Amino acid sequence: MARMIPPYISDDVKSSGEKIIFQLFENDPDTKDWVVLHSLSLSQHVSKVSGEIDFLVLAPNVGIFVLEVKSGRVEYKDGVWCYQNRYGEKFKCMRGPFKQAEEAMFSLQNHIRNKYGPNHHLSNLLFGYGVMFPHIAYKQYSIEYDHWCVFSRENARSKDGISQFIRNLSMQTKKKLAYRNIQKNLPSPKDIEKIVNLLRGDFQCAIKPKHLIEDVEAEIIKYTEEQCRALDSLEDNPRCFFRGGAGTGKTMIAMESAKRSAIRKQKTLFLCYNWPLANKLKRDLKGIENYVTVSHFHGFLSLLSENKISKLRKKKPNEYFNSRVYLQDDLPNFALESIWYGDFRPFDKIIIDEAQDLLKENYLDVVDALLDGGLAGGKWEMYGDFNQDLYIKQNEEVMLQLLEKRSNFTRCRLLKNCRNTKNICIQTSLLTRLELPEVLVRTNEMVDYYFYQNQEEHIQKVENVLYSLKEDEIPLHHITILSPRSWENSIVSKISQQRLPIVQLEKVDMNNLMNKLTFSTIHRFKGLENFYILICDIEQLTADYIRPILYVGMTRAKLKLDLFLNKNLEEERNKLLLDSLKGD
């Protein structure tokens, strides 16, 4: 699969032909080491003030090729080109696609010569051009161009048709030049990178990270809205358990359900496990507080039991209130007593996100008591991903059986990932051996691994990535550093706060994160997300406990993921990669 720049095709591109060619490059396994630039502007065109290359292919040991794409029907008669689009509209042009491609190729060569000089190695690489007709079987050959420059529908139907076409283009171009006693060099991977870096300066004006972030966010919202149709189809089911992997839109669907409940004036309780997620939900659902109460589970139980807890604080040490005994046993019992013996009105509906962390017998006792009609007869929705079970650590079927004993309910599976990019999902599956849903978000930002030998190198590599993101003008609030360790035990706490101020998520107002670079443990960040995620302090890959932690951490990234691993894990990581390839 080629590295596409930009890594997605803009919605502004109306040409279905360009979309087909983009997908062919993206999916052809024989284009693995290639770089393909799409919609590249030329400021120094040989015949016009400016021009544009539809696709520029830079293939190591193959060559550099300008491709002109023409969609729909094409005719060439009496020196005039006639194009017909999918709407039946016709356009005539004296300057044909072969001339367009050739002139664009010369313009590009001139640009490189002007930069490096005529005798430089990069000025003497193999350049060629081709014209792509993905919709038609093109048979109109002419002495004005070489027939092997043509890519047609037959090529597009083959899974490796695009790579074979480019390789043949290379071979035929070399033969043509050799006939004229012209020798050209084939580009090395380093040559390709130099040319990409040269061209990217102007090119990146069109794909600033800010715009990429906006486009990806728009895609995520669009796909999640499509997932929300699951609610429409389940309107008549009062009780439903939504299961879906990371990124399938569970939280956003739950939020949409809460908004609908508010419109119907239903008194609704929206619970989750993690308090940072609860704080975000409160912010995002602001304005419907009269009908929807949002809280993390233990926070709401504490509110119910505040009289009991205030008395206990005089008798118990602070450690008790953070203990498992208190959180998992005593607090649920205190809450039940308050519900049973206090002046409590049950909720009309309960929505639970992160349900996999709350399917415990005594937790369900509390939920049952909070709901009008109980779990058996009341209205409720639960959203869960059992791969993210960081707390109960119980088999998913065992947990669901606890619920089945209490209630009849509909199950709904969410099967499409509308948050993470393809590469993030691939690498997450590779390291965790957990399968992720079908990916919808279109971008090819790579997942980068950094291996460190000691603490100093670890810190240096994290700082380098952060400085690079700052240079790219990434807003700091779009970056979060995660760790399986607490702040005190993470190398992040040792990064110079003067040069790179990093705030701990738990110590900052969630409503005031603008231009703040945040740190969180992976556990605390469950249910949240950001565009750029760096995961530090990875000292283990294959232990059972680390798999769900890495799964949660890696799937928080919406656009770019960087992993920092102990050098001792490099061989282990490579073995996981090889095992994955063998499995394919």
Structure overview:
With 584 residues, this protein is an alpha/beta fold. It has three domains: 3-200; 209-417, Rossmann fold, CATH 3.40.50.300; 422-582, 3-Layer(aba) Sandwich (Rossmann fold). 39% of the residues lie in helices and 22% in strands. A six-stranded mixed β-sheet has the order 1-2-3-4-8-9, with helices on both faces. A six-stranded parallel β-sheet has the order 12-11-13-14-10-15. A hairpin with a 5-residue loop joins β6 and β7. α16 (422-432) runs antiparallel to α19 (546-554). It is elongated. The chain starts with a strand and ends with a helix. Mean pLDDT is 84; it is low at 43-50 and 202-207. Residues 518-561 form the UvrD-like helicase C-terminal domain. This is DNA helicase. GO terms for molecular function: 3'-5' DNA helicase activity; ATP binding; DNA binding. Residues 240-360 form the Schlafen group 3-like DNA/RNA helicase domain. One of its GO terms (biological process) is recombinational repair.
Mean pLDDT across every amino acid position: 84
Largest sheet: 6 strands, mixed
What is the CATH T-level topology of the largest domain?
A: Rossmann fold
> Helix proportion of residues, in percent?
25-40%
What topology, given as strand order, has the largest sheet?
A: 1-2-3-4-8-9
